[in-house]
Amino acid sequence: MATRAPFLTTPFGGYYHRDVPQEDAELTHIGPGTPCGEYLRRFWQPVCFTDDLRDLPRRVTLLGEELIAFRDGRGAVGLLELHCPHRGTSLEFGLLSDRGIRCCYHGWLFDVDGTILETPGEPETSTLKDRLCHGAYPTHEYNGILFAYLGPPDQQPPFPRYDSFIRPGYRLIPGRQYFYPCNWPQILENAMDPVHTAFLHTIVTGAQFTEEFGKVPELDFIETPIGMLYIATRRVEANIWARMVEIILPNLQQVAPAWEDGHYVHPFHGPMMSRWIVPQDDTHTMFIEFRHVSETAGVTPSWWADRGVMLPGQLPESDSYEASQRRPGDYEAQVSQRPIAIHGLEHLGATDRGVLIFRQQIRRVVYPSTADNSIGPKTW
Amino acid sequence: MATRAPFLTTPFGGYYHRDVPQEDAELTHIGPGTPCGEYLRRFWQPVCFTDDLRDLPRRVTLLGEELIAFRDGRGAVGLLELHCPHRGTSLEFGLLSDRGIRCCYHGWLFDVDGTILETPGEPETSTLKDRLCHGAYPTHEYNGILFAYLGPPDQQPPFPRYDSFIRPGYRLIPGRQYFYPCNWPQILENAMDPVHTAFLHTIVTGAQFTEEFGKVPELDFIETPIGMLYIATRRVEANIWARMVEIILPNLQQVAPAWEDGHYVHPFHGPMMSRWIVPQDDTHTMFIEFRHVSETAGVTPSWWADRGVMLPGQLPESDSYEASQRRPGDYEAQVSQRPIAIHGLEHLGATDRGVLIFRQQIRRVVYPSTADNSIGPKTW
Amino acid sequence: MATRAPFLTTPFGGYYHRDVPQEDAELTHIGPGTPCGEYLRRFWQPVCFTDDLRDLPRRVTLLGEELIAFRDGRGAVGLLELHCPHRGTSLEFGLLSDRGIRCCYHGWLFDVDGTILETPGEPETSTLKDRLCHGAYPTHEYNGILFAYLGPPDQQPPFPRYDSFIRPGYRLIPGRQYFYPCNWPQILENAMDPVHTAFLHTIVTGAQFTEEFGKVPELDFIETPIGMLYIATRRVEANIWARMVEIILPNLQQVAPAWEDGHYVHPFHGPMMSRWIVPQDDTHTMFIEFRHVSETAGVTPSWWADRGVMLPGQLPESDSYEASQRRPGDYEAQVSQRPIAIHGLEHLGATDRGVLIFRQQIRRVVYPSTADNSIGPKTW
């Protein structure tokens, strides 16, 4: 648990509140060997879009590891350690081959599973390539996104297929990818925080989604067998508008349509997107989305089927600091919590119950013996 | 005290003089809890110009603390901790309100004294806002500059009004603000170093002020009840020209006019400016000036009443490294002493008596039990 | 010796191979007081081209030390500590004088041996300048390159003149200078690695030198009394082509002509260049070359006598990351081994015998009691 700053009760009391506690390492550190990092590695994680794997290898950082993703001439996809096991040259300068990737420096050739196929400068009698493997991770392509499993090989789960991915009448398409220079929970927690849509996205900056978001809703937070969801309920004219957003642990969000606002009666349309919040390292995070597009005219706006268009508010509109000050969005609100938000300086309220449950759920799995289990039974 | 490098006495002896001692932490570290930082906090310190507080909040770093300055709709000025006490979002993206500033993320509203006026997403029964304060510091506007007191509340001194600020026949106007990427004493000491005006500002680079500065003066250093001053005396034709510069501890300079040079007889005109050297953090310093403008024609040059014009030599004339090499000024001479000047590598001479007295005065106050008090009695 | 990562034998085994060992400090750390740094200091090292010493001083970093090189009005060359011994101002802003260099701040004047010639602000009775020296190193100009000796003064060797520098029928001219943001052995080892010419410079990227380099050669590595050399032997049509590259310890390479390829019979032409790989600090390295130009028409291509033209492959052709990926050269292959290559992650093969001998030779001299001496007798 994070150490806490004093609870300040004095006006003009800044002098008593200057020390910055350490970050909450239990939830925020994700490198190899950290408890939370090992937990995240037990799940298939998105790496990049599959159509980014063309005629050049693609360097990625994932969970604190430097890696290279590529598609070889057969169409097989590999995710390997970035640095060649021979002398350390980066495979981002490697040559894609009919089978595998070849290091530019001495031509060693690696298959997608890490097998060393050739060490061409070595004598023909060399057995090094038969004894040594390069570090590799299993991958899975699904619907335009490349996923990888970075956990212990004997614990590899099947690739999950959620019901929302295979709904009749819906297409699942790859959407956009975003990079925030900050730690991961402060991004993911935003999805369990329906109140911010009333303030950040509506009252403070003018309606980024619709005007109805500006009403502070009634809130229900519900733990599920695989995570949690919230229901934000508002009265809109004669209707009751219930908006639901789900988290599937550890780092997948399913977000209700931003264009719905309760003005007309319609059936439940499910999520507009499924989005993973993927730590690159402790202070950089990538998120990547599948978009759900209805095949029924009028249900999904046409711009949502266009990958070139992004959801409003995800990135600053320009490089102008003044523009960010005048019209902040999720990027400003989340990144400015510091590179790693300091939980010991927070004061959570009733509306932060979703944030608390999310952290508690993570803690229950990662630190089962020390976590406070009072919120609910361990369901994961 | 700083550890010292060996006293090198050998030509071609670089080999014996390679180690760089630690900086003199006693005088150079100014963060919360450091002895010198706590000393600086016992005085009202300038924050920014008051006319920089318009329709957006202004982020500042002061004595190692991240803060936000703003003026609300009533005209009240606040200086608060930068990060919202709720979830840590930076208030630089906050919305100025009729009273106080509102965080962009969930709309919490803070008064200028840190009182939490609203937590709008929270239930009406919530008492959090009545029990919790946000960190705030008292401020004082004076003549176009915003000042703040960052020290212990029970030790808050009255805002000082020096005689030079209220001289009959003079206007006090806000001037310019400069930012140097280095530690603070190496900037402030420049004011107790009249010899550099002969070399840096005249002989080495051509006259930046007037030709008469190129004569090395006779020097007197005098401790005062509130700091020290020097008198640099030169013979100019048949006249005696005595130039005086004062330091008011800990970090205020009063600098004699740079345009006077003893060529004609005139009464004492007092300082051209009062300037604070304010540490932002250990390696960044801001200075900010009041200018003294005479209402008598011919005493103060007209350009000095124009805030758009700066005193020569305070900043490099361009981004060109070659131009800085060919015509260095105070910026190059002071910043290039390293981000924090290493006192243990210095060799001070007779002309550095002002520097020594300044450091000794600081040390006498901050470390009274260990300081060498031989220079004079403790007057502060 | 470096700690080693596990030997990975498992396909898809990245999970077992995530930890990055520490760098091999014994060979890669070169600052003052490090064993390898002290070893490098026992040799004359290149500083810069002498024609870079014109009317401004030149700041250089060498073996982890910040220095200033300059030529005074007499033509004498100095290499001094960067920071003035008075108050620390950088001498890169100093004024070149008829004799020595003058600090811009207070005008102290330093001779090329570190003698303090003037402290003009000090009283005439001051003896400081007679007792104190500034740090200085002995220099030697040779053929357009400035060299310096940074080692213990009582161990200063004569400046070496190798037979290749004074060959009848050849001119020795200064060539080019390169800066790589990485540690030094990973650059120098490239010269003892003839196999990379077949892959990096030919097969992977298309012929950067000549097509014949694309054949993997027979290799001989031979220790010499002053270092080592390799002979790379290829059959070219009816000829035997033997290419030789030499290392003179600790950091001088003599490289065979890149334009020879065995297609015609000719006498031994000696090296095309003599090149020093000089650490600036642990993660930045400069190399600088003498070019050997034959006075016999047709032996040396005319472009090699033109300092404006560089050997292909030494630097990226543009700032484009994609261009570097498509056509990597020595820069990409060596720099991407990390700022300091991690020996504990390497797997050296038969073709890396030259790399092993080089490291072993350094280790034998620097760590004589612990090094494995099995490769050969200590010859240095």
Biggest interface, and residues per chain? A-B, 46 and 48 residues
Number of helices of chain A: 8
H/E element sequence of chain A: HHEEEEEEEEHEEEEHHEEEEEEHHH
- Tell me, rounded to a whole number, the average pLDDT of chain A: 93
Tell me the helix content of chain A: 10-25%
Bulk shape of chain A: globular
Oligomer: homotrimer
Walk across the major sheet of chain A and give the strand order: 12-18-17-16-15-14-13
Quick one: biggest sheet of chain A?
7 strands, antiparallel
Terminal Cα separation of chain A, in Å? 20 Å
Structural class, judged by helices and strands of chain A?
Answer: alpha+beta
Q: Count every beta strand of chain A, where a strand is a DSSP E run of 2 or more residues.
A: 18
Beta-strand fraction estimate of chain A: 25-35%
What Rg of chain A is obtained from the alpha carbons, in whole angstroms? 23 Å
- Poorly predicted tracts of residues of chain A: 373-380
Spell out the blueprint of helices and strands.
Three copies of one chain form a homotrimer.
Chain A: H1 25-28, H2 35-40, E1 45-49, E2 58-62, E3 65-71, E4 77-81, E5 95-96, E6 101-102, E7 109-110, E8 116-118, H3 128-131, E9 136-137, E10 139-142, E11 145-148, E12 170-180, H4 185-188, H5 195-203, E13 218-224, E14 227-236, E15 239-248, E16 252-255, E17 273-281, E18 284-294, H6 321-326, H7 330-335, H8 353-366
Antiparallel strand pairs in A: 1-11, 2-3, 3-4, 4-9, 5-6, 6-7, 7-8, 10-11, 12-18, 13-14, 14-15, 15-16, 16-17, 17-18
Textual characterization of the structure:
- 3 copies of one chain form a homotrimer.
- Helix content of chain A is 14%, strand content 27%.
- Chain A is built from 8 helices and 18 strands.
- The longest helix of chain A is centred in the last third of the chain and has 14 residues.
- Chain A is globular and about 80 Å long.
- The two termini of chain A are 20 Å apart.
- In chain A, 49% of the residues are buried.
- The C terminus of chain A is likely disordered.
- Chains in contact: A-B, A-C, B-C.
- The interface between B and C is large, with 46 and 47 residues.
